[in-house]
Design goal:
Layout lengths: L1 H62 L5 E5 L6 H6 L3 H5 L3 E5 L3 H9 L5 E5 H9 L4 E10 L3 E6 L14 E4 L4 H12 L8 E4 L2 H10 L4 E5 L2 H7 L2 E6 H6 L5 E7 H6 L1 H20 L1 H12 L3 H8 L2 E2 L21 H14 L9 H6 L4 H8 L1
Parallel strand pairs: 1-2, 1-3, 6-7, 6-8
Antiparallel strand pairs: 3-10, 4-10, 4-11, 5-8, 5-9
Helix pairs in contact: 5-14, 7-8, 11-12, 11-16, 12-13
């Protein structure tokens, strides 16, 4: 009997131990499953967070770029044509680009006034008008410094051999342009009063038509019309290179809507990078560059070479010198050049008043050149 009780007790103990063991195993398994589920949930949350961050980053990048950029261009023989020919603008600016053709700086100003363009090529005189009349853009690059590319030409059989001979003659130029600025200074430096000359405000194509008809004796204008005038008997009596030697500096500039540039600095910097690339290519391989320039505007390479000889094309580093924007991007001669043009335009009654030079300092900057060279 005792043995039977002992056996029963032992069996009961064994069964209890077995059940306890089974219960412990179940609890361990449940804990492991819970931990695994927690890890899976955490991993899912991490992945979701990463996807959200990536989406936010993509949205931020998109917010830093406009849907498109509208650039106003003119037919100027400059390295900028290389950028057009090679179609690199969208690569450098990072978004779709529309190129809109204009015949003069006055047309470019009208486009800025209507909000049609974000960036434009324009001469110093119309740029001075734009800044003086609050069109909202700032100068941020020199496309060129004008030399013989703008010239005062006369009919070869006119008997006119000097600026002083223009008294009583009919002279045409696009008013409020760099050519107009140079013409008026040429007259003044040679003792000819504006009232002693019949001055006509004509766009370049109209000048050519008037020249062919024999309606005008002289014209101060730029290419491609200048080359056409030479082909039809024109001879130069002075040019903008000679005027620059006498302190009358004119240039073609790139301007950008100031608010647009501040909102999309990568676009402004990208435009400058494209210009630096084009100028560097022009300097490194002028023969190939002239071929691209010629094809871009459908002229011969020889014609492109002749026209290019009438300009100076400063590269990025040169533009950060005193002659342009200064080493810090804000201390060069550009503000004074614009102020000089504005003073002239005020005298001509093209604008009501010439702003203080501080205004031109505010609306000209080498900031994006500095950025482009640093990146």
């Amino acid at each position: 009997m005792k043995m039977g009780k002992i056996a029963c007790v032992c069996l009961a103990a064994a069964l209890t131990a077995s059940m306890a063991a089974c219960g412990g195993s179940a609890k361990t398994e449940t804990k492991a499953q819970t931990e695994a589920a927690a890890q899976t949930e955490a991993a899912a949350e991490t992945e979701t967070a990463a996807e959200t961050a990536a989406a936010d980053e993509t949205a931020a990048e998109s917010a830093e770029l406009p849907e498109e950029v509208n650039i106003g261009v003119q037919t100027l023989v400059t390295p900028e044509l290389i950028a057009r020919y090679e179609e690199i603008y969208e690569e450098y600016l990072g978004c779709p680009v529309n190129l809109l053709q204009f015949d003069s700086g006055a047309d470019v100003n009208r486009a800025f006034a209507s909000g049609s363009i974000d960036i434009g090529a324009i001469g110093t005189s119309p740029a001075a008008i734009g800044i003086s009349t609050n069109l909202g853009y700032e100068v941020f690059w020199f496309e060129d410094v004008i030399g013989s590319a703008e010239s005062l030409v006369v009919q070869k059989d006119s008997g006119i051999t000097s600026v002083a001979d223009l008294k009583g003659k009919k002279v045409a130029t696009p008013f409020a342009s760099t050519a107009h600025f140079s013409l008026q200074n040429a007259l003044e430096l040679n003792g000819v009063a504006a009232a002693d000359v019949e001055l006509y405000d004509m766009q370049p194509d109209d000048i050519y038509a008037a020249w062919i008809r024999g309606d005008i004796d002289a014209a101060y204008v730029w290419d491609p019309v200048l080359s056409k005038l030479y082909e039809n008997g024109a001879t130069a009596i002075t040019d903008s290179a000679e005027m620059a030697e006498q302190g009358v500096v004119t240039a073609d500039l790139a301007v950008i809507n100031k608010e647009f540039a501040e909102k999309y600095p990568s676009v402004a910097t990208g435009y400058i990078k494209a210009q630096i690339y084009a100028v560097d290519k022009f300097n490194a391989d002028q023969d190939a560059a002239l071929q691209e320039i010629a094809e871009a505007i459908d002229i011969t390479k020889e014609e492109a070479a002749t026209q290019a000889a009438g300009f100076i094309y400063p590269d990025g580093k040169e533009q950060l010198t005193d002659a342009y924007f200064g080493a810090d991007g804000n201390s060069g001669s550009i503000a004074q050049i614009l102020k000089q043009a504005a003073d002239f335009l005020t005298e001509q009654k093209s604008i009501d008043a010439s702003p203080d030079i501080s205004v031109f300092e505010e609306y000209s900057t080498g900031e994006y050149i500095l950025r482009a060279l640093d990146e």
